[in-house]
Specification:
Layout lengths: L1 E4 L4 E4 L16 E7 L5 E7 L3 E4 L5 E5 L4 E5 L5 E6 L5 E5 L2 E5 L4 E4 L2
Antiparallel strand pairs: 1-2, 2-5, 3-4, 5-6, 6-7, 7-8, 9-10, 10-11
Length: 112
């Protein structure tokens, strides 16, 4: 896994070629998100491993990109699925509360 940040863009990449072996040599297909709220309460979500994760600049929305679709989650007050689209994303960028994403054929925008 690798993380990149340039002040406006934060990306956490998950390399699907990596395998984490347990005693039975099974490959992990899921990961856990751990959120700690201001009051100290911890929330854990089990999700399939995305190709990459992209947070908006205010860290209110989280984009999770998979091989054939993507999901946008609102993080607060609850971790909630806002949008799911079955389209392959090549790259994406959050800008002024909008998500711009590139597919094989177009550049599109989402206003969550």
């Amino acid at each position: 896994k690798s993380s990149v940040s340039d002040g406006n863009l934060s990306v956490l990449s998950s390399n699907n070629n990596e395998s984490y072996e347990d005693e039975e040599d099974n490959v992990s297909k899921h990961f856990s998100l751990h959120f700690t709220l201001w009051d100290g309460k911890t929330i854990v979500c089990e999700l399939p491993s995305p190709n990459f994760i992209l947070w908006d600049t205010n860290e209110r929305y989280c984009l999770m990109v998979y091989s054939d679709h993507f999901c946008i989650f609102e993080v607060s007050p609850r971790f909630t699925l806002v949008l799911q689209r079955f389209v392959k994303i090549i790259s994406a960028l959050w800008h002024d509360k909008c998500l711009f994403y590139v597919t094989d054929n177009s550049i599109e925008i989402v206003f969550p």
